[in-house]
Give the backbone structure.
Amino acid sequence: MIELEGVPELIDPVMVAAFEGWNDAGDAASTAVTHLEREWKGEVFAALDAEDYYDFQVNRPTVWMDAGVRKITWPTTRLSVVRVGGDKPRDLVLVRGIEPSMRWRSFCNELLGFAHELGVELVVILGALLGDTPHTRPVPISGTTSDADLAQRMDLEETKYEGPTGIVGVLQEACTHAGVPAVSLWAAVPHYVSQPPNPKATLALLNRLEDLIDVRIPLGELAEDARAWQVGVDQLAAEDSEVAEYVQTLEEARDTAELPEASGEAIAREFERYLRRRDGGTSPPSPGERTRPPKPPKPAADDDESSED
């Protein structure tokens, strides 16, 4: 049993998670959760034992000085909670960490234990991948789930991916098997400018998250940072004719593929986001209330996974 002393009863809690590493191109996903934690002043209430999940030769601890005393920060995964105010208050449980080196099933089971104790109604996992996408166009964001009903209700894709996966894919499947509704949001980062940071991809993830869970996210200077990032990449591309030509090829392919997407529905979605921000977070009239998946049952014990070494 996980004891969570000092954590109040939460309102419509959603768990939002991101992990540094293979699933985090340009650090876009982990930076998004860091942004939420900073803007809403999240307080860490739990941390997973680093000894159980990390190879310290891969993810090394760091030494720092605190008033002349040497201290060590160990790589791990931490949980914090924030309350989003407004007409419809909602709590977010933020999970920020590093993709574990070992015992992934036990790692996921521990996170699901926290989710159950806190009454989490939905898990949203953020990720970022490298793709053939031009930096000059809006960042593609794909929302996927393994639950066909959830995909239909929340306008998501039912995942059909086959191949190597990271902790994002493993945690999403663990949620599905435990009966916890789970969604993954993926940002596509241009592979020719993959080094972090990528504020444009982070901004796109937060905008999609805002739509998904129906909260207004304060963006701070992120929009300005995204514009500055694009200008900087524009300048670098202009200095190399081969890169400039390649970017133009990607732009033409993207524009041709997305021409049918310039639909009334897409325009309406952007207009609703504009209205929410203009009105200070009040959503425009809609035919239904906030979409809420059914509250998950308590995960059943899994003897095989509990014996993970």
